[in-house]
Each structure stands twice: as C-alpha cells, then as structure tokens.
C-alpha cells in the first residue's frame, strides 16, 4: 500500500488517522473502546507503544455471522507499535491477539513494516512467513474502490489536494511520478479452525481487513492538512483526548460487565453449534438466520 509521504512523516499521520477514524466509526454502543495505551519496551525492537482495544462490531457482521454471536459482541485487539515495525497479534497465547474470547479458534495476526519505496521489496516478510502460503495483494489508495457506504469525495485522493503540502489529485500512474513515496507492507494471517465455516470466515475477514486498510490510508492522505504540522507530543495528546471521547460514546451503551457479556456469548455460541452438530434436538431460539446451516463440531465448546 503506497502513499505520498516518507516513513518518518507518516508516523504522525498514522496515529492521527487511527484516533479520528475510530471516533468517527463509534456510535450507538459500537466501535472501538481503548482499554490500554502505554509505552512499552521490547529487548529486540526497542521502545514502542502497547495498546489494547475492544472492537464492538455486531452490526458490521453479515447475517450468517450475527446468527452465531450475541447482540453485544466484541473482538479484543492487542498491538505493539515499534514504528516502522508494528505487530497486531503476538505474545498472547491464543495464536494472535485479535481474538474473540468465546471463540478460541479464531485469531488475526498482522505484522506491518513501513519502507520508503514504491512497494518493490518482494522479500520483506520472507523470514516471518517462510512456512506460510501467501497471496500478495496490492492496494492503491487512489484507484481501488471502497465500499459505497464509506465513500466521501472529500477523502478521495483523486480529487483531494492538500493546501499545506500541495500533494493530491492522484492520477493514474501517480506511483511512478510522486516523491516522496512510501509503502506500508502488511502480513495478515487469519485463522478460524471450525470445520464447515473456516474458508468462508477467513475469506470474509481478509476482505474486511483489506477494506479497513484502504479506507484508513485514504483518510490519512486526505486529512494531511489536519496533522501535518503536529509534533509527536501533539499527536499523542490528540490521541489521548480522542480515546476518552470515543470510550464515552461506546461504553455508555454497555451496562453489562465484561464477564457477563463473555458468559452469555459463550453459552449462546455453544448452544448454536451443538444444535448444528445434532440437528434432531430441539432448536434453540437463535433467530431465523441460523436454520439450515450444518457443520461438524467437536471441541470448540469444551
């Protein structure tokens, strides 16, 4: 994924974009709750930032997934930011740190490396992914289409032009002519080890991750005049304020405790999956979208 910045400059833009995007996407009890955001030191990667978030996203799920999960549903995300290297999913004991507490066989692991080039480093993840089957997906912030419901002309790099930097109105072939330019390389691994749903869920999650990355990096480009003059201290203060505002929007809608949510969620999923495994038993009251789906399940609820 290429952008018209260098890595050092984009560090501030990335932090600004994530905070503003999370706030905009949070409403009516759904969105991103920041649980932890603090400095972290790693013996190999040095100083960084550790964040833990709960992403409430029931309404974002397709109907076949909403049949399985409770109304109040969230995914826990942990991330270690050692920019220009970041990890979402590691050191967590569940094969990754984007996970759903009541679906222990589901995880998302993302590693990111930022480099000042046009996306020409084909071997950037050879060490990390040497044993993985990989599909390479190029993302162009100017020409790739985003879901219609997220489109805003003011955030379209083809039409936006920065007043502060003069960058913008990216036309076909912009990657060959623009300087500076950088690339965000992502290694995304999704696991959902449940027979009968694995391929469908993993493909769906990969598409969602791709859409989020495309939207976010378009916004970072289109919001450049808002963050370009910020220092690291400025953006950390902005980040703190936005996290507080976003948590208020999200958390005030959830009167249940985390333990209550997880207990109810696990019971609901187990009931649903046991019914699928033994279709001749009485049907649980999980809504019409759960009917007719069959898969074999052994140990998920143990």
From TrEMBL:
Record GO cellular component, one term? nucleus
Tell me the keywords, alphabetical order: Lipid transport, Lipid-binding, Transport
Pfam families in UniProt: IP_trans
A GO molecular function held by the record:
phosphatidylinositol binding
Record-annotated Phosphatidylinositol transfer protein N-terminal domain positions: 7-243
Q: Which reaction does it catalyse?
A: a 1,2-diacyl-sn-glycero-3-phosphate(in) = a 1,2-diacyl-sn-glycero-3-phosphate(out); a 1,2-diacyl-sn-glycero-3-phospho-(1D-myo-inositol)(in) = a 1,2-diacyl-sn-glycero-3-phospho-(1D-myo-inositol)(out)
Oxidoreductase among the record's keywords? no
Q: Which family does it belong to?
A: Belongs to the PtdIns transfer protein family. PI transfer class IIB subfamily.
Q: Describe its function.
A: Catalyzes the transfer of phosphatidylinositol (PI) and phosphatidic acid (PA) between membranes. Binds PA derived from the phospholipase D signaling pathway and among the cellular PA species, preferably binds to the C16:0/16:1 and C16:1/18:1 PA species.
Name by which UniProt lists this protein: Cytoplasmic phosphatidylinositol transfer protein 1
Q: Which organism is it from?
A: Cyanistes caeruleus (Eurasian blue tit)
